[in-house]
Amino acid sequence: MLSSFFFLAETTGDVADAGKAIALALGIGLGALGAGVGIGNIFGSMIQAVARQPELRGELQGIQWLGFALTEAVVFYGLIGGLLAYVLV
Amino acid sequence: MKRLLAVGTMMFLALPAVALAASDTTGEEEKFNPASEWTLHEWVPIHLGPIDMSINKAVVYLLLGTVVSCVIGIVLMRVKVGSDPTRRQALGETIYEVAQVQIAEQGLPTKAIGRWFPYVASLMVFIWVVNMLGFIPLPLSDEKWKIAGVEVPTLAIFAATSTLSVTLALAFMTWMFTHIEGIRANGVLKYLQSWIPDVPKALYPLIIPLEILGQFMRLISLSVRLYANMLAGHMLILTFIGLIFLVTPWIFPFSVLLSSVFYLFEVVIVVSIQAYIFAALSAIYIGSAIEPEH
To answer: Which secondary structure element, helix H or strand E, spans residue B5, and what is its range?
Structure first.
């Protein structure tokens, strides 16, 4: 039973479906990789900036959230690309 | 703290009701599919020739959102202004200040604020309301269940902004206004010239198609950002709830906890940020068309 699972994994279902699932996962995963780095950068820089000049916090906050949303959207472009591959192709 | 606890308890009770929609199929077993939330059935079919204007779930949510944002505007802004501000006045002033200081004054040039502030502010309020309605379980769904013999639609969460047509229409409006305002303020030739950045003339064949493409990419990025954010949020919540039906019912403490966390994240942060971003980017686009940088 176990050996068949590891060595002779039978392909059940459509192989094309597997390819679509991989496309979806890659789309989200790679998008999230980039956006994770980007969002980390934004908040890291924000912490540094506020630590240096606490009085600018209010002004910086608007820019911070703008940058956050713009960066975060990158994940969703990947998601939409993946979904397109999943649904349309 | 007490209020937070109450909200938490309510969600613990309300969220499984959302998922009940899937389990409440009569007779045969049906596999739970979170994507079924986005199949739009025609409730009131209206067909004008080739144009399909039927009223479906998304349209009802949009109409509801319109009514609620009108009510919010009237209730919060038409206040007798006194020296001792009431809660209503304070809330209204907060919303107005965000729209005025954070959005309009950041993006629009001073001479255009008077004309475009109403558009940008109503965009913010409207998108916020529609996003927020998407996270309140409302009895607007296609599945029915029986309470005391009466067929009632199950509670479900659905955001009109998680359909691409809605966000694309909103983005298209901003996009059209951008170009109309740009042409009106600068004239056709001068406005088109302002698209071309300062580069050596040899690079023009490369840059000009890119800049034209960039104008269309704005349309896509503006609409897809809002659409995909709301879609992904709803998909996450529904998927984690759906684990109850897909894996084992005993997983429910885990799945309800996780989906509650995502729910709070969406309601507290994403809903407001997306409304703010959409309005702010609209203001920036319109502002940069009126006063090109060079």
So the answer is: helix B2-23
